[in-house]
Amino acid sequence: MSQTTESEILTLIACPESIDKGFRLLVKKHQQQLYWQIRKILLNHEDTDDVLQNVFIKIFKGLPNFKGDSKLSTWMFRIAYNESMTFLKRKSKILQINDAELQDYLVDQLEADVYFTGDAIQLELQKALAALPERQKEVFNMRYYDEIKFKDIAEILDLSEGAVKSSYHIAAKKIEAFLKRD
Amino acid sequence: MKKKNTHKDLGFEIPDGYFDSSMDRMFDNQSQQQENQELPFAVPAHYFEGLEDRIFENTVGKEAGSASKEKEIPFSVPQDYFMDLEQRVLEQTVDKPVVQLERHFPAWVVPMLAVAAVFVAVMAINGFWQSNSFSMDDLNSDELGMYLADSDFASGQDAINILYSDADELQNVSFNSAMDDEVLLEYLVDEVDMNLMLEE
């Protein structure tokens, strides 16, 4: 099957008769991209799976109201990011720990996670990422792993391009310092 | 303040605006000279492309191992997860059966009911069903007595205290519900005998 473009999907979802077809193509096209975006925030597969399904349900319900002011992928990224943040807040409440303690908890869980395939160095990098504020971590993940342009990151996170670049460089410095510590 | 065009000691004159524009003209000449001559330095082809990544690799990447290896996301998913995921998402969205609520009456009844509801609300607001004021004096004493006799209220020390609270003669009388069985039996036998005598 040929690769479906975003404009083709938008055309399909703009029409009530073909919205289902458009959504099917959208799921097929974006499921992995959204999965990995969420997974990098939540780290754990089961949590990611739960959140991803909620994200798609929200996307499905929100599609009739999607005005096209931003790119479809940007809009979905935002939903995924917000859902992930909401999930983390709920989890920290359930565990009765603060955000920083939750990040430590998530990284600690990685060591016993069968779906974590990294070595000791990659685990250290995850620990360094966990120590970052959420916004810096997200910017770093998008730029470093996904190689998204600063301009696009700015649009996704609703920040200025300058703020995104600044966040990225601060994050990189912090990670460097973390990895170089004794 | 405008500068004077004549030197106070030498008496020489200069053109109007000379000092205002002299610095600009000097810089213009300098930059024109720079444009005309190439810098004696060169960079490798495509040097600036990917410079940022190379800088990062030499800092964080150097510590964390080779950049390509490090950039791999160190997570995996269960086998066939994405094949299954697509199906599960669709089952919860586009393929989810729509539950129709069973309708027990024809569709035309709905607007009729709405009109009736408004009508009832207006009547209620206007006090159509407002009941007349109630007074204890309106109650028939026999009916009230019957009610009290049938209800639990008429039994027990508390009820007696309330009913006879204004009766002075009862102030020193204590009603004890613990009645002796023999006394009670004797009373009932006498009562039955009396009734039999009356019937005869």
SS-based class of chain A: mainly alpha
Overall CATH architecture of the largest domain in chain A: Orthogonal Bundle
Q: Considering the protein shown, what is the CATH homologous superfamily of the largest domain in chain A?
A: RNA polymerase sigma factor, region 2, helix turn helix motif
Distance between the termini of chain A: 52 Å
CATH topology of the largest domain in chain A: Rna Polymerase Sigma Factor, Chain: A
What's a concise summary of this model?
Chain A has 182 residues and is mainly α. Chain A is built from 9 helices and no strands. The relative contact order of chain A is 0.09.
Report on this model:
The complex is a heterodimer of chains A (182) and B (200). Chain A is mostly helical. Chain A folds into 2 domains: 1-117, Orthogonal Bundle (Rna Polymerase Sigma Factor, Chain: A), CATH 1.10.1740.10; 119-182, Arc Repressor Mutant, subunit A (Orthogonal Bundle), CATH 1.10.10. Helix content of chain A is 75%, strand content 0%. Chain A contains 9 helices and no strands. In chain A, helix 2 (19-42) crosses helix 4 and helix 5 (99-110) runs antiparallel to helix 6. Chain A starts with 5 loop residues before the first helix and ends with a helix. The model of chain A has no long low-confidence stretch (mean pLDDT 90). In chain B, 4% of the residues are buried. Chain B has helices at residues 18-36, 51-64, 67-71, 81-92, 109-125, 141-150, 157-163, 181-199. Chain B has 8 helices and no strands. By secondary structure, chain B is an all-alpha fold. Residues 33-37 and 62-68 of chain B have low confidence and may be disordered. In chain B, 52% of the residues lie in helices and 0% in strands. The A-B interface holds A 20, 23-24, 27-28, 31-32, 35-36, 39-40, 43, 45, 49, 52-53, 56-57, 60, 115-119, 121-126, 144-145, 172, 175-176, 179-180 and B 56, 59-60, 63-65, 70-71, 73-78, 81-82, 85-86, 88-90, 92-94.
